[in-house]
Automatic annotation (TrEMBL):
Keyword Iron: no
Subcellular localization: Membrane; Plastid, Chloroplast outer membrane
SUPFAM superfamilies: P-loop containing nucleoside triphosphate hydrolases
Native species: Discina gigas
Name of the protein: AIG1-type G domain-containing protein
Length: 432
């Protein structure tokens, strides 16, 4: 975390601020500021119809949200670029540094210096003070152009407590203005309750009286303002214009050597306190930095531990998945082996049964062949036998025929006996 440390000295950039304000003012003074809408309908009793050359300067102070921008708006004040002040609806859009707004009231050129509240968190209070005093100094350096007409201090009456920050702001205001010039300060009270809320209104009036007695002693007067009370705002300006112009204490002091804020009453009041605040702030920053460093280290260690943890988990997971893959692979291998063994066994069994079958078939075939051979043999023997028989028979038949032929021959001139013999032989042949 980077914190801007502001050294409350009258530094180079203050000169730059002065220069810038000077240029803006030259523009307004040199070329004339022509927006006269704010005071056109209000007569200017002091001017006697004469346009007054010097610009009347009014300083607007008060907490953020007290209604400063609204007040400037009601007077139609615009900056060097013609822009109206931003009426804030939150802390972010609040004024960060003193800003010059210009307007006309009657024939008077009016300069309204809008200042940041001392309670603003965006900038260090010392820096705010530095800016305000620097701006005031730039007006004091040109008395022929600028008349210091007074300070309008706006206070939010709805705030119940007049707390430390308000007391501090009031103290700074008094130190800037100087007790002898408090007659040039008007307190504008804002945020009044509506008349129908009589109870609240009574409380606020009581608070206003108490503040007048306890806090605002010596000031010119208090005036009640509403959100867009143009006439009241103009009246405040006229009230302050009624008195003589007077430099504020801080301006008188700045005009004297050594021309430093440290030498002014407000500087003496705010700086030790501011320095203390600054030191406290710096201490807090250092503490925060240390805490932040320790926290960053702790976070870093935590992160590293987490990284290691994740890595470990990842590695374990990887290992587990690798082991799982490996065991799966081994199981697959085993399954394959088993399957192979089974296949082999089956193959063996199959081949054995095929071999057995082949062997049996072969045996059977051999047997059959043998039987065939035997049959063939038998057949052959039978055939031979039959042939033999046939041959024998044929021979015998031939013999018989011979005999028959012989008998027939004999019968051709056969004796009875021969004939008889032949007959018997024929019968015998038939029987066979
Ligand atoms: N009720 C009420 N609201 C106001 C009054 N003056 C200003 N406001 C509102 O208060 C808020 C802050 O006003 P602004 O002028 O920006 O305050 P600044 O921070 O002092 O410049 C805005 O919303 C205004 O409209 C007032 O008198 N009465
Ligand atoms: Mg504002």
């Amino acid at each position: 975390m980077r914190v801007k440390v502001v050294e409350p000295r009258f530094r180079l950039w203050n000169l730059f601020t002065l220069g810038l304000i000077g240029i803006i003012l030259c523009l307004f003074v040199g070329f004339g500021y022509r927006d006269r809408s704010a005071g056109n309908n209000i007569s200017n009793n002091d001017d006697d119809g004469q346009e007054i050359k010097a610009i009347s300067v009014f300083v607007l102070m008060g907490k953020t949200g007290s209604g400063k921008s609204s007040f400037i708006n009601s007077l139609n004040g615009t900056d060097a670029f013609g822009r109206k002040p931003v009426v804030s609806d939150g802390i972010d859009s609040s004024t960060q540094s003193p800003t010059v707004y210009l307007t006309w009231i009657g024939k008077r050129k009016i300069l309204l210096l809008d200042t940041p509240g001392f309670d603003d968190s965006a900038r260090d209070n010392l820096e705010v003070l530095n800016d305000i005093v620097s701006s005031l100094y730039s007006f004091a350096l040109r008395p022929e152009d600028f008349e210091m007409r007074g300070v309008i201090f706006l206070h939010d009456i709805s705030e119940i407590r007049f707390g430390g920050s308000q007391k501090k702001t009031l103290g700074i205001l008094r130190a800037i203005v100087g007790e002898e010039n408090l007659g040039n300060v008007i307190v504008g009270t804002t945020m009044w309750s509506s008349t129908w809320d009589a109870g609240k209104l009574k409380q606020q009036e009581k608070r206003e009286r108490a503040l007048l007695d306890d806090q605002w002693g010596g000031i010119r007067k208090t005036t009640r303002l509403s959100r867009d009370s143009k006439n009241v705002a103009v009246q405040i300006i006229y009230d302050l214009l009624a008195g003589p112009p007077a430099l504020l204490l801080a301006q008188t002091e700045m005009l004297q050597p050594p021309h430093t804020i440290e030498a002014t009453t407000v500087g003496k009041l705010a700086m030790p306190e501011g320095r203390q605040e600054l030191e406290d702030l710096q201490r807090k920053v250092r503490e925060r930095e240390k805490e932040f460093e320790a926290e960053s280290k702790r976070q870093e260690a935590l992160l590293q531990e987490q990284v290691r943890d994740t890595k470990r988990k990842f590695e374990a997971q990887e290992m587990r998945s690798r082991q799982k893959e490996e065991s799966q692979r081994l199981k697959q291998q085993e399954d394959m082996k088993k399957f192979e063994g089974k296949l082999r066994k089956e193959f063996k069994r199959e081949s054995k049964s095929i071999e057995d079958k082949i062997r049996k078939d072969t045996k059977k075939r051999e047997q059959e062949e043998k039987e065939i051979r035997k049959l063939e043999e038998d057949l052959r023997v039978k055939l031979i036998k039959r042939n033999k028989i046939r041959v024998e028979k044929a021979r015998k038949d031939a013999e018989e025929q011979e005999k028959i032929k012989a008998a027939i021959k004999r019968l051709e001139k056969p004796p009875v006996l021969t004939w008889f013999a032949n007959l018997i032989s024929i019968i015998l042949t038939w029987f066979r």
